[in-house]
Amino acid sequence: MSDFWDSITSAQPDPSIRVVIGTGVVALVLIGWRPLWRFTRNVVTIAHEGAHGLIAALVGRKLSGIRLHSDTSGVTVSRGKPTGVGMIAVLLAGYPGPALFGLAAAFTLSRGYAVALLWGLLLALVILLLQIRNLYGLWSVVVFGAVVFGVTWWGTPSVQSAFAHLLTWFLLLAAPRAVVELQQSRRGGQGRSSDADQLRRLTGVPAVMWVGVFGLVALACLALGVIWSGVIPG
Questions:
Q1: What is the count of structural domains for the chain?
Q2: Does 191 have pLDDT greater than 90?
Q3: Residue 8: pLDDT band by 50, 70, 90 thresholds?
Q4: Helices first, then strands: H and E counts in the chain
Q5: Is residue 117 part of a domain?
Q6: Predicted confidence band at 193 (pLDDT cuts at 50, 70, 90)?
Q7: In which domain, by residue range, is 200 found?
């Protein structure tokens, strides 16, 4: 048990810059190649809906459950006042969520705590699993959690570090694409119940401006994550 705790609380050696860049390239393939993106986008949805749920709990709303769908959409249901600052905060959390989680992961990795990051992710997935209310959502979280657990439990330190960097790059790079897809769906006449459109109805601010806010947050997190990764000097 002491060895297990030491592995979580101790910093691991920094990976080589080749590993950092290589995992970033793999993440780009997972995001940019459409046949893979159809599946890997589920990870973005998990982070997106998890962010909604987290903020709902923090602002005092009662979380009723989360559903993840096979088309990589999702919905988080919470009970409380349908207007006001709390509801706005919940709606704001979704699209920036993956980017902010990725940025938090990048900060953790910059301090050398890859193993702690993976165990923290597993804990978050267990908490999320308790809120899932449909079979596909259950399957998605369990499969993703099983992959993370397998690497965390059986992987060597170098494998754990590489996998943690891959996940971090994936969240940072996938967040801007998700925002682009949101605006594309809106231009196509879909997505009128999107977070941005719900924010428009609550605040009177045009939906496209909320999409812009989502995009700016995602790009800012990506830029800072790149600096923290050591790819370019800070």
A1: 1
A2: no
A3: confident
A4: 10, 2
A5: yes
A6: confident
A7: 24-229
